[in-house]
Amino acid sequence: MLRTIANPDWRQQLPAQILSYLPLTLFFQVGLMYAGLAVFLLAWFVSGDWQNKLARIKSSALLWPVISLSLISVVISLIHAHPVGEFATAFSHYQTYWFLFPMLSVGSGAWQQKAVHNFFLGAVIAASLFYLNSLGVLPDIKLFKSYVLYEGNKSILLGLLLAIAAAWMLHEWRLHKNFRLWRALSFVYVLIALVLCTKSRTASLLFVLLCGMLVFRNFSFRWWQLGAVASLLLLAGFSISRVAQMPAPTTCLTKEMHEVYKMSGAQILLNRGICTVHQVRDFGQAKQVTQDGMRLELYVITWQMISQSPWIGHGIGNWLPMYQQKAQGQISEKMTTPHNDYLLYWFELGVTGLLALLAIWGTQLRIARQMVAGVHSERAMLLAMLTVGMIFAACFNAILRDGVFAFAMLILLAIPLAGVHTMHKDA
């Protein structure tokens, strides 16, 4: 950083330097991430070089999909009534992707690999904090609160970040021959924390999915690959069938498992897996849900409301008041999001809003495929895994609806995406 400031062009280099450290802030209290973003945007505004910045933004393949989503949100906001106290915040969430473009305008450079290393460093620190908490020695202060107590979306985000970091580590270990032992140890260190300490079903499943992407990255329909997929599907089906016949766990609430029954991380993860199968079974048979399994009720009721206006939706910010009215007396009545971005976009923006979201993520996958033939093809897998992670997590959480998730994902997206068009020209 001191060398950067001593350079006459330090103002132009400063945004990239700050951006390289932002992945490290994702593993602590959300205020640090927001503060880091604010500092980056301030440095970006004063760094000048606007001609190159605008050229990079205009050349991004994501520009028109993001513009389309914004235009759709404006049109829908003109059609429907605005709920009091909900509209402004809800409308702003549909514009979140615009924060990606200042990061992309920085361009490619050494900061990207540094950002990857800082992301890995953050994951190792996070794993260490989870281990310290499991030993009962982590201080109960605000900075480490997410590692001591369950904090909703922040705790879910930590699990997702560790899953993505572990998959990225595995990819980097496969590509680079230097420090392979240390890379392997770091990967195992983070993976154990993910499985035993985060207690996140979504994050654990996401890691398995991302590992599958690495294994079948060159899928060519060979017999052993098809056999492996078929065997895994049969094994999964058999396991789910057996689990559905097992006795129900005493409790499905993570807090009770930890505080009342003193279960280990592995026991909690196993119990939550059993609970998930039982919740789906019970809901399918008798429409019964528990506090831990209320997502099924959320999805069904939200879908019922979508079917009333599938084309133009119900308007921005209207999900919360309409859902609470529809779900009166039910266990999910007080939920603030449907925990599924696809249902939320479809409900509020209609089918065009859902298609706009899918177009953005589809464009990211297309860019990743194009990057494979470029000079930095190793970053293609980082982008592909991150995009698949967003697509998968959006099935169970508010990945874009909540800034805690959205800004973290945008910071990570900037790492493989920045400079992608320049790379193609150079290639």
Characteristic key phrases:
disordered C terminus; 427 residues; mainly alpha; single chain
Short recap of the structure:
With 427 residues, this protein is mainly alpha-helical.
Explain this structure:
The longest helix is centred in the first third of the chain and has 25 residues, at 110-134. The chain starts with a helix and ends with a helix. Helix 10 runs antiparallel to helix 11 (180-196) and helix 12 runs antiparallel to helix 20 (378-393). The chain has a domain at 15-217 and 347-426. The model is unreliable at 422-427 (pLDDT under 50). The protein has 427 residues and is an all-alpha fold. It has 22 helices and no strands.
Described by the principal axes of the CA atoms, the overall outline is: globular
| Oligomeric state as shown | single chain
- What integer value in Å does the Rg equal? 22 Å
Mean pLDDT: 84
In whole angstroms, how far apart are the ends? 30 Å
Class inferred from helices and paired strands: mainly alpha
What is the number of beta strands? Answer: 0
The largest sheet is: none
- Determine the fraction of residues in helical runs and give it as a percent range: over 70%
Low-confidence stretches: 422-427
Write the layout of secondary structure elements.
Layout: H1 2-6, H2 10-25, H3 30-46, H4 50-58, H5 63-79, H6 87-93, H7 100-104, H8 110-134, H9 145-148, H10 153-175, H11 180-196, H12 201-215, H13 223-245, H14 254-259, H15 265-286, H16 295-306, H17 319-326, H18 341-349, H19 351-371, H20 378-393, H21 403-417, H22 420-426
